[in-house]
Specification:
The chain has about 300 residues and is an alpha/beta fold. It has helices spanning about 10-25, 60-70, 85-90, 90-110, 145-165, 190-200, 220-230, 250-260, 285-290, 295-310, and strands spanning about 5, 25-30, 50-55, 75, 115-120, 165-170, 175, 205, 210-215, 215, 235-240, 245, 265-270. It has a single domain (about 5-175, about 215-245, about 280-295), classed as Rossmann fold, CATH 3.40.50. The protein has ten helices and 13 strands. A seven-stranded parallel β-sheet has the order 3-2-1-4-5-6-11, with helices on both faces. Helix 1 links the parallel strand 1 and strand 2 (about 25-30). It is globular and about 55 Å long.
Length: about 300
């Protein structure tokens, strides 16, 4: 039986990935300090015979080594994932994201793991006007968060090259889906808008709403992680997205259409570090890892609205 460690296992992405790995017959260890994740996200697997959970911090070397002992594959999802918070608390974000990744990678070499797949971000591209974004573009991180994600992916590739570990960095675009946290100042746009509009409240758009994003449903993020291991890809950075762009105004229109409402957004000044347009070329992920998005933006949005409606 293959063994996997999922860091950030109690988070939005980590919990979905944990479930998928268990469904595929893996023995899974989850590591999470529950600072933003929740055991509620793991309620379906906490009693699973092949799952164990370590409540601790990714920066704690002893906890990380406990999680890695005997593991074949590592899926590193643990991070502080917020551009705005990285401006408000740059030392915290840098410490968790960069130091945490370094502790994990050093221990992964020690325990002779086969594969390390890490979550990176489309934010590394910055506001380069070339669309769609492809992996050969020069990076231009415009926030401490983006810089920390670039550090994570590059440190992982360097470890792989130095110690013969299969290493893959996945540049997530705008992920959404069930279990994503709608609360708090740093919440992602899709869950926050759905939660507000379900309650009849007007969402706030920073800027004119014509900024665009490549929204990718959680099932396809999970698919990309699994295929990064199963394809034996190594030494690669891959875009993970749907492959098309949606404006924030269009997002509001789609949610209104699903809910049968006509709620109008409130417009405020743009935020520092926000990128105007983001869209992915996913041909490399398709070629290298046989990644093909399976859930359209509309279908994913309907599933997400349904989940929030039932909460």
């Amino acid at each position: 039986m293959k063994r996997a460690l999922v860091t950030g296992a109690a988070g939005f992405i980590g919990s979905h990935l944990t479930e998928a790995l268990l469904d595929r017959g893996y023995e899974v260890r989850g590591l999470d300090n529950l600072s933003s994740g929740s055991l509620d996200n793991l309620s379906a697997v906490l009693d699973h015979d092949s799952f164990s959970f370590i409540e601790d911090d990714i920066r704690d070397r002893e906890a990380v080594e406990k999680g890695l002992d005997g593991v074949d594959h590592v899926f590193h999802q643990a991070a502080v994932a917020s551009v705005q918070r990285s401006f408000d608390e740059p030392s915290v974000v840098s410490d968790v994201n960069c130091t945490g990744a370094s502790v994990l990678l050093e221990a992964a070499e020690k325990y002779d793991v086969e594969t390390v797949v890490v979550a990176s971000s489309a934010a590394v591209y910055g506001s380069n006007e070339v669309l769609p974004k492809h992996e050969e573009l020069p990076v231009a991180p415009e926030s401490p968060y983006a810089l920390s994600k670039y550090y994570t992916e590059q440190a992982t590739l360097q470890l792989g090259a130095q110690y013969d570990v299969a290493a893959v960095g996945l540049r997530y675009f705008n992920v959404f889906g069930p279990r994503q946290d709608p609360d708090g100042e740093y919440a992602a746009v899709v869950p926050k808008f759905i939660d507000l509009m379900l309650n009849g409240d007007r969402p706030v758009i920073f800027g004119d709403g014509e900024q665009s994003r490549d929204f990718v449903f959680i099932d396809d993020i999970v698919q990309a992680n699994l295929k990064a291991v199963e394809s034996m890809a190594t030494g690669e950075v891959l875009n993970v997205a749907y492959g098309s762009r949606t404006t924030i105004n269009e997002l509001v229109d789609e949610i209104n259409d699903i809910l049968g409402t006509t709620i109008q957004p409130v417009y405020e000044d743009p935020r520092p570090g926000d990128i105007r347009h983001s869209g992915a070329d996913i041909s490399k992920a398709s070629r290298v890892a046989e990644y093909e998005p399976a859930v359209s933006f509309r279908d994913g949005l309907e599933q997400t609205v349904s989940w929030f409606s039932e909460r």
